[in-house]
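Check the record.
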Amino acid sequence: MPADYLPILILFGIAVVITAVMVGGSWLLGPRRPTPAKTAPYECGITPVGSARERFPIHFYLTAMLFIIFDVEIAFLYPFFVIVRDLPVEARGFVMGIAAAFAALLIVTFLYELKKGALEWEDPVEHRRLTPDRALRNPAGGSQ
């Protein structure tokens, strides 16, 4: 059985070597004395006109986090449906029951987010008054 893991160990070894070469090469060939001109943000050959640190409405972050959460949950559902065809008929019902419970949890979570208004977009001026903890509680920013 340990011989079966040899290709995986070789793969990890190659990954470590490639990573070490890239990090070491960057350290050896990289700039030694950063100047303000070298560290300034550069895009499309145009000199920056303001700060690169602009504020974004909280709903951009909230939407991104919700997308990542649901994306990972769907990635967890995929193996259930892949292995179901290889299982004996007696075990298929159990595995599909687990997948159905997980999907029901996804649906309940999505309905909760809709009820709380986490996916509603409003006037950008209104978003400036929101904080991350109040965004899910009350998207309008007013009193409950």
Notes: The mean pLDDT is 80.
